[in-house]
Write a structure and sequence with these properties.
The structure is a single chain. The chain is α/β, with parallel strands linked by helices. It contains 22 helices and 23 strands. Strands 9-14-13-12-10-11 form a six-stranded mixed sheet, with helices on both faces. A hairpin with a 2-residue loop joins strand 15 and strand 16. Helix 4 packs across helix 14, helix 5 runs parallel beside helix 6 and helix 16 crosses helix 19. The longest helix has 24 residues.
Length: about 725
């Protein structure tokens, strides 16, 4: 007699009954169907409780509380232990999308591990979830913006490539679940001033809107399938961004096909009636945001939706639609499926700040460091007899972090990195030397005189999050986080001058910061200059690797460094005329795309050939003429037939990071499509111009200023794009 256990059938029957009673638990159903079923069970009061960033629990439906507000700009942020990668602007300086996808993947691994651990101890607080309000793909159009450090720079194409890779890494590649939910912010036309962000109206023409401000958001939506989009504080073309049918419906949903959730920036909906004055009450503001497409309110205005419904300003059915949209994201994350349903439930906490992730953070820092000058001083020898290190940022943890950062128990300051790199027989002297932004109180100065007996001086200067950042964050900023001057603090300038004068030894100037720093007073007296951004927890080791030649510098500037604010248009003007490398006619201090190497590269034999209709290929020979291995960032620019007369002077259309052995020559190719030749009309329409396009391939912006600064090689060719692509 064969005995058949009835227990599995019994359990299956119980599950089937439960799923029939609660269809949102049926994992075989589409996410939106499950979300719709769940929302249909809620009372109006319960629905409204779910519309804000701190979503309350609904015990009768077994819905736990959930906080939507989480940050992961360059590592899981504001939530304890995590790998602290270099600040986002350094991602742009790496010109390495493949590397940044690895970073996104590492961050979401840590995020899931931390989320699992948080649930185990009942921590559902802000910053403990897995809906991350990153990345920031606004265009760093003005060097004064304190939050520019959060972006990938001033170029829409570079920003798109880095942003798409980051989102893909963060969200994962599972066919059913997303590992973490990324969010493109701040949509749209948002980049300062911080002081007026709650009331400002960004007036922008259609050409600049579609050429500069929207491409990165479009790429993240269409290519990376980003799960969230955050509306900005400001108005754009008269409409508050979180209450703009033009931005949220016409463009985002209808034109681009976005199918994720839309969240307001924190407090942005209250700005409707408080500062923008487009509504008269919280109820009116809630109705406007809901109608326009905002699914989640970071803030408390959506608590007035009951009054908005009572007053006939909005219907409950629309509330249901918005709630279904945001709950679909929670279902995609697997938050309502049995434990173990997705592979991310089992990610161990061993990944958090692991050796592998620390190594990745170090690699990003290495590849983002930009050498702005080198008169043959670098690299220094590790067995150098003596070094003198001075400056407020040499042993500062603050300058490693940037903003929106996590924490680790093992950061490596620049001083730490240098000390660990040199021979144990090397004499090292270190003095703080100068306060970060204020004058020294003690009139006695030993610091500048102590360097006279050393073989080399390393001055670690620059700025930090104390001087630039978000409204209220940068406590030493007199412009609510922005910068009124691009200069180094005057006391640092004076200190470096005095240090060089009293010692007259080779001077290596290391600068930290997240935005352009104008140093015309120091360029000539420094023998070498490194710009290292906010380089993360392994930043000190990465800087030392470059100083002592273990790594050849290969970072490139993702932003133009003006000589001063005098070269910039008015901060409040969102017109792109005179801005960024594309439209700036004055000679900058350092151009976009610039960066030197220890190796010597030459470019030659650029050719372009048609493959088929709408497709071509560009090929170029690149040779490393030096005796060291190094990486080079190849940059592909075009200039249209009307460049500088409406179209950009130069326009980055492709780039590649390539490794070269000593003496190695490679033929590198770029696949071309019609998109590489697109320019924008005044009406915001894409067009390929009649006449000849100039193509450039080089290791820097192909400008005269780049050549003056030491960028030796470029190659160019003329093509008729219409004939080439027909």
């Amino acid at each position: 007699m064969i005995r058949i256990s009835l227990l599995p059938l019994f359990v299956f029957s119980l599950i089937s009954i439960a799923n029939a009673q609660r269809p949102w638990l049926d994992t075989s159903k589409p996410y939106k169907d499950r979300a719709t079923a769940l929302v249909s069970e809620m009372t109006l009061e319960e629905k409204i409780s779910q519309m804000v960033d701190q979503s309350m629990s609904i015990e009768r439906l077994n819905i736990p509380e959930y906080n939507w507000w989480n940050e992961a700009l360059h590592g899981v942020a504001r939530n304890g232990r995590a790998t602290v990668f270099p600040q986002a602007i350094a991602f742009g300086a790496s010109f390495d999308p493949e590397l940044i996808e690895k970073v996104g993947n590492a961050i979401s691994d840590e995020a899931r591990a931390k989320f699992n651990a948080s649930l185990a101890i009942g921590n559902r607080n802000r910053y403990a979830g897995i809906t991350f309000w990153s990345p920031n793909v606004n265009i760093f159009r003005d060097a004064r913006w304190g939050r520019g450090q959060e972006t990938y720079g001033e170029d829409p194409f570079l920003t798109s490539r880095i942003g798409v890779s980051f989102v893909k890494g963060l969200q994962g590649n599972h066919d059913k679940y997303i590992k973490a939910a990324a969010c493109a912010k701040h949509y749209a036309v948002h980049s300062g001033p911080e002081e007026f962000r709650h009331e400002f109206n960004a007036i922008v023409n259609k050409k600049d809107l579609y050429e500069t401000y929207l491409p990165a958001f479009e790429a993240l939506v269409k290519e990376a399938k980003v799960e969230g989009v955050m509306g900005a504080y400001n108005r754009t073309l008269g409409e508050p961004c979180c209450g703009s049918p033009f931005l949220l419906q016409d463009i985002l949903r209808d034109d681009w096909g976005f199918d994720g959730y839309i969240v307001s920036d924190c407090g942005a909906i209250s700005d409707f009636h408080r500062f923008h004055k487009v509504t008269n009450s919280p109820a009116e503001s809630a109705a406007l945001a809901l109608k326009s497409g905002t699914d989640v309110n970071c803030g408390g205005v959506y608590k007035a939706l009951d009054k908005a419904i009572e007053q006939g300003l909005v219907e409950e059915q629309l509330l249901d639609e918005r709630l279904v949209q945001q709950y679909t994201t929670r279902f995609r994350l697997g938050l309502f499926d049995p434990a173990g349903s997705n592979p991310y439930d089992d990610i161990s906490t061993d990944v958090v700040d692991s050796d592998e992730n620390r190594a990745l953070a170090k690699e990003v820092a290495q590849k983002s460091i930009v050498m702005l000058k080198n008169d043959g001083v670098l690299p220094l020898k590790k067995d150098i007899r003596s070094i003198y290190i001075a400056g407020p940022n040499a042993h500062s943890e603050e300058v490693l972090l940037g903003n929106y950062f996590g924490l680790t128990s093992s950061t490596q300051s620049i001083l730490d990195g240098i000390v660990s790199k040199v021979s144990v027989g090397t004499t090292i002297n270190y003095k703080y030397g100068q306060l970060p932004w204020d004058k020294n109180i003690n009139p006695i100065d030993w610091a500048t005189g102590s360097g006279a007996k050393s073989d080399a001086l390393i001055a670690v200067m620059g700025i930090s999050g104390l001087l630039e950042g978000e409204e209220g964050e940068a406590i030493a900023s007199d412009a609510k986080g922005d910068r009124n001057s691009l200069k180094l603090p005057q006391n640092q300038i004076d200190f470096v001058k005095k240090l060089k004068k009293r010692s007259n030894k080779p001077l290596v100037l290391v600068l930290t910061g997240g935005s352009p720093i104008a140093i015309p007073e120091l360029y000539d007296i420094a023998d070498a200059i490194l710009f290292v951004w906010y380089p993360g927890e392994e930043g000190g080791n990465a800087v030392a690797d470059v100083i002592f030649g273990d790594v050849s510098p290969s970072g490139r500037l993702p932003i133009t460094f003006p000589r001063s604010i005098d070269q910039l248009p008015p901060y409040e003007d969102y017109n792109m005329k005179g801005r960024t490398y594309k439209y700036m006619t004055e000679e900058p201090l350092f151009p976009f795309g610039f960066g030197l190497s220890y190796a010597d590269f030459t470019y030659s034999d650029l050719s372009v050939s048609r493959i088929s209709k709408g497709k071509a290929v560009a090929k170029v020979k690149v040779k490393n003429n030096s005796s060291i291995a190094a990486e080079e960032v190849l940059q592909f620019y075009i200039s249209s037939p009307i460049a500088g007369q409406g179209d950009p002077i130069y326009d980055l259309k492709a780039f590649k990071r390539e490794s070269f052995q000593a003496g190695e020559e490679k033929e590198v190719s770029f696949d071309l499509t019609l998109a590489q030749f697109h320019q924008f009309t005044d009406e915001g329409q894409k067009v390929v111009r009649k006449g000849n396009y100039q193509i450039y391939v080089s290791g820097s912006l192909p400008s005269n200023r780049s050549v003056e600064l030491g960028a030796k090689s470029k190659t160019t060719i003329t093509v008729n794009a219409r004939k080439l692509m027909k």
